Amino acid sequence: MFELLFPFFLIFLLFLVLAIIWRKNARKYISSGTVASAYDAWTQDKLLERLWGEHIHLGFYPLGQKNIDFRKAKVQFVHELVKWSGLDKLPQGSRILDVGCGIGGSSRILAEYYGFNVTGITISPAQVQRARELTPDGLNCNFQVMDALDLKFEDGSFDAVWSVEAGAHMNDKTRFADEMLRTLRPGGFFRVG
């Protein structure tokens, strides 16, 4: 009986070892360059954009409501975060930094619906290019390639700093928070989720 099960045992053991190696190394942070390359590849193949739309983040699904389109739920999520964070109390023209803007979906909503002057940053050149392509002329949004751990803005440059789900990808969360707070004006709004 053992002779019959031995090949299956070896295959299982090999699979287990490969799974452990993959799990240990698959999402390991190597450098900001490797992160940028991964985001560039995802942006250039447009798979996530085709599946998820312009927002690669969570959605808002009110209790009791059924059959909510998940793309619309993600847009509604941005509006809910604006209310929850108090950004809706800022005057039009307020300067907003969108850290980890991706292809600019949230940045465009903040500019279009709330009249904010939005600067979106991402480490991915391909995401910045796509964000610019998707942004209509005249919308007060600009996009820059920048590492959130080394922001190239003066202290107190923004009335609000906004970041949705980008912190989970940062290898130095303290520096990430310090940089965002440094660029926030005294008394400004800080929204990180």
Question: Could you describe the 3D structure shown?
Answer:
The protein is α/β, with parallel strands linked by helices. It has one domain (32-192): Vaccinia Virus protein VP39 (Rossmann fold). Helix content is 47%, strand content 16%. The protein contains 7 helices and 5 strands. The chain has helices at 2-25, 32-45, 47-52, 70-85, 105-114, 125-134, 173-183, and strands spanning 95-99, 117-122, 141-145, 158-163, 184-192. A 5-stranded parallel β-sheet has the order 3-2-1-4-5. Helix 5 links the parallel strand 1 (95-99) and strand 2. The longest helix is centred in the N-terminal third of the chain and has 24 residues, at 2-25. It starts with a helix and ends with a strand. The relative contact order is 0.13. The model has no long low-confidence stretch (mean pLDDT 84).
* Structural category: alpha/beta
Output the CATH topology: Rossmann fold
First-last Cα distance: 55 Å
Helicity level: 40-55%
Domains, number:
1
Give helix and strand order, one letter per element, not per position.
HHHHEHEHEEHE
Q: Name the CATH architecture.
A: 3-Layer(aba) Sandwich
Q: Kindly report the average pLDDT value.
A: 84
CATH class: Alpha Beta
Annotate the secondary structure layout:
Layout lengths: L1 H24 L6 H14 L1 H6 L17 H16 L9 E5 L5 H10 L2 E6 L2 H10 L6 E5 L12 E6 L9 H11 E9 L1
Parallel strand pairs: 1-2, 1-4, 2-3, 4-5
Helix pairs in contact: 2-6, 4-5
